[in-house]
Structure formats: structure tokens, C-alpha cells
Amino acid sequence: MTMPLAGIATFAAAPLLTQEPHPHFAVFGVPFDAATGYRPGARLGPRALRDASARYAMAWGDANPGYWDVEDDRQYLVGCRLADAGDVDPLYTDLDALDQRTDALVGSLLGAGIIPIGLGGDHSVTYPILRAFGALGRPVDILQIDAHLDFTDEIGGFPRSNSSPIRRASELSWIGNVTVIGVRGIRTSRPAWDAAVARGHRLLLARDGLEGALRALPSGRDLYVTLDIDGLDPSVAPGTSSPEPGGLAYRDVRAILRRAGAANRIVGADVVEVNPFLDPSGGTALLGARLAVELMAATYLA
Ligand SMILES: [Mn+2]
User: Fold this and answer.
1) Distance 261 CA to ligand 1 centre (A)
2) Count of the separate structural domains present in the chain
């Protein structure tokens, strides 16, 4: 196809998952934002990310030439196979249905040896995705890029808001250590911070910068990367429910992903909290799609 905007809007013009051969990665959406406490709309994130990803269309398959990064003078994703597995189909606010349907889709990908790349959705969707990783049968560490800890135990007795997914995930027996990069703001919960420290999490403030972040990264681990777009500065990612000024630069996030992928085995990832209603230029969705491609490049590298 010559024009990347033609055809079905799969991620980066990848074939649908029904086609052989099995891909290295499968992108899937979780169009769910009922756990958002502030401005809703992230349920339309998967569609916006797919639309924006046309910018990064490539000939996925054994003959994929990948792309040349002029700054690195290096070719990435050569021979990489990507498929689009469609969406988890949420049932309104039914969390049991969300969990079961996410588990079915992600579990089938993991069972086939395919690395899942989720597109949110609000950040609460990371928990049902990580539930499915129990099928791997080995510990998984988390690298979270985020302005917020998302480690609040409950709000008014509700345990599944988009402030709690990492807390819920940390209760799963297969989840190991957690590294959070980009924390900032004046709404961080002190009890959540103390609980994360008590569990041994590595918590890096945005002001710790790139060097601090790189020093904190784990190595030699099976790693799940959850990338909340609000980890980046609102100047480059304004289209999100809860932006916080003073965030990470795109360049630094890319460097963190590259190092994380080179030093670990990335077993899955997500990009969450892109909200098209707050993104009139489409720039936040374009950045999110770009970071999903960079995530795959960092993973395929290893
Ligand atoms: Mn988050």
C-alpha cells in the first residue's frame, strides 16, 4: 500500500492477528475509561493511537526493512513481525467481564509466545493485563513511567480506580519489583508513597533526571513496561486526563526504554491515558504511537 492512511486502521498498518505467521508482537486495545477520576475519554485512545500510527506504517514481516534512526545511524525492527489483535471488548463498568476478557486475549497471546502491547484506556487497564501474566509462570518486574504512583490502596472503598492499578498488581504473586520514573506533582498520596517504599519499590522523581532514571533501572529481569503518557511533560503530551507540569522529555523516555530493553527481557508493555478529547492537534496520540514503536524497537533489540 502506498498511502499509509488508506485501508483498515490497524496499528502501523500491521496485518490482523488472524494471519500467519505468528508475530513477535501483537498490539491490542483496551477501550475502557470508567476508572477515570477526572476527565474521561481515554476509552477512545486505542482508535486515536491506531489512526496516528499510520505515520509509522511499515512492511511488517520477515522482509521488514524496519526503520533507520538517523541519530543513532542504526536500523531498528529489521525482520520484525507485528500484528493487530483488535480490542478487549469491555462490558460497560463490569470489572469481572473486563478482567475475564483481558485475560482471554492477553493469555492467548502469551500462550502463543507473542509479546502483548496494550493500548489504553485509562491506567486501570494495566491491572487486568498483568493478571494475565500469571500464565507465564515466572516473576515479572514492572517499569512504570508515570507522573503518579498509581499505588493508592482504595478511594472511598473502591480498589480499582486509575490511581490503584500498580497497588493491585503488586498483590499478584508473580509481580516482583517495581521501578517508577517521573513522579511529581502536589497530589501524591503520602500513604501510597510510604507503602511503595515499604514494598521496596524504586521511586524516581522527575527531577532525578535521566542519569538517576538509568541508574535505577533493573537488569536481567523479565520486565513489563507500563507507559502512562502523563509521565511526559504536558508541553509534548497535553492530551491526557491528569497532566502534571515538570515532566519527562521525549528524548529521555526513549533513552530509558532503550536501556531497559537492552538490560532486560521486556515481556509486555502498554501505553495508557491518551485522551483524544483533550488532544485537538492529535499530537499526544502521535507521541503515544511513536513510543509504542520505540518500545517494540527497544524490546526487539535484546
Ligand atoms: Mn498512571
Assistant:
1) 21
2) 1
Tell me whether residue 79 is in a domain: yes
User: What CATH number does the domain containing 142 carry?
Assistant: 3.40.800.10
State the distance from the centre of ligand 1 to the C-alpha of 230, rounded, in angstroms. Answer: 7
**59: CA distance to ligand 1 center in Å?**
32
Q: What would the pLDDT profile of 143-159 be if each residue is shown by its tens digit?
A: 999 999 999 999 999 99
Give a yes or no: residue 232 inside a domain: yes
CA of 51 to the centre of ligand 1 (A): 23
pLDDT in tens, 123-146: 999 999 999 999 999 999 999 999
168-171: list long-range contacts, CB under 8 Å, 24+ apart.
168/127, 169/126, 169/127, 169/130, 169/131, 169/142, 170/199
Residue 151 C-alpha to ligand 1 middle, in angstroms?
9
Q: pLDDT digit string (tens) for 268-291?
A: 999 999 999 999 999 999 999 999
Q: Compute and round to an integer the Cα radius of gyration of the chain.
A: 18
154 CA from centroid of ligand 1 (Å): 15
